[in-house]
Inverse folding.
């Protein structure tokens, strides 16, 4: 799906609301109005090759890691095999799944920088059958500098994924909150991008820059790259601000915005402490239901 950078610039600026449209937005929940019932996905007869999706936004704290974990877990519930790749030196994805990556001798850093190390050597199973993880820790921060001198440095992740892609249905990459070389590697290796976007105006300001980066990668490195969708996160229908921001996002990006909206809830911080996805920690919660709906949308792409 194409997104125009000028639309992103427009939505990133808070501006006066049309009185009639503003009054209508105040009276109803625009996110609820867009929701549709989604059919259950069909079961698979065989696995692979994997579709690679980069979870990307250069702003931190917008729900990238939470969405990577829970989308992966929801896809597994629908019979898919999923590999999660932690491409953030902070290692939040690993922590969120209860994997002590800071104590590991080999992580994604070794895969990227050592020819003799493969993803099979460093991946670890999670507590969810069918969901595997390639962990990360602070060592990965050195890769950004070391890759600069490498030949075809933007394709490093793409090369290492080739050996393992047939074993999975989806590979989700949790990108770091920046538009540096590691993120460019993720975009070069991916077929799709999911942009988690917190429903507040400061989060909207960086969308144009992110879209511009995606367009450049598509033009110069990865012609098959597409934006799968924008995922509204931390949404609170009780606040006028959230409802208005969501309306502006839909106004600018239209059908590129997922129908599924991730509501703000205390359950998500609990899952981080527990080291589990919300689909297993609180399987009947609204958050778990939302990520199952998101998985249905992703499977329908």
């Amino acid at each position: 799906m194409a997104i125009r950078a000028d639309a992103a610039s427009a939505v990133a600026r808070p501006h006066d609301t049309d009185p009639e449209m503003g009054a209508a937005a105040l009276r109803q929940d625009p996110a609820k109005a867009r929701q549709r019932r989604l059919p259950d996905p069909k079961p698979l007869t065989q696995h692979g090759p994997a579709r690679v999706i980069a979870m990307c936004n250069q702003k931190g704290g917008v729900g990238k890691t939470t969405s990577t974990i829970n989308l992966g877990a929801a896809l597994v519930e629908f019979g898919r095999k999923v590999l999660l790749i932690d491409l953030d030196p902070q290692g939040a994805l690993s922590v969120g799944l209860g994997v002590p990556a800071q104590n590991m001798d080999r992580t994604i850093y070794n895969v990227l920088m050592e020819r003799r190390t493969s993803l099979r050597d460093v991946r670890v199973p999670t507590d969810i059958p069918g969901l595997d993880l390639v962990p990360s820790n602070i060592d990965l921060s050195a890769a950004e500098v070391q890759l600069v001198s490498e030949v075809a440095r933007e394709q490093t992740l793409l090369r290492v994924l080739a050996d393992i892609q047939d074993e999975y249905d989806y590979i989700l990459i949790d990108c770091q909150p920046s538009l540096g070389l590691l993120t460019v590697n993720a975009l070069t290796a991916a077929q799709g991008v999911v942009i988690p976007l917190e429903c507040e105006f400061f989060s909207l300001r960086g969308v144009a820059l992110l879209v511009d980066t995606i367009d450049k990668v598509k033009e110069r490195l990865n012609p098959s790259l597409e934006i799968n969708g924008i995922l509204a996160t931390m949404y609170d229908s009780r606040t006028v601000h959230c409802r208005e921001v969501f309306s502006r996002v839909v106004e600018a990006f239209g059908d590129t915005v997922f129908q599924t909206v991730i509501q703000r809830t205390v359950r998500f911080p609990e899952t981080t402490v527990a080291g589990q996805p919300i689909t297993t920690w609180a399987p009947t919660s609204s958050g778990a239901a939302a990520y199952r709906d998101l998985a249905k949308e992703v499977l329908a792409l």
In short: The first strand starts at residue 51 and ends at 55. The beta strands are 51-55, 82-87, 124-125, 131-134, 170-175, 192-198, 226-235, 257-263. The CA atoms of residues 193 and 228 lie 5 Å apart.
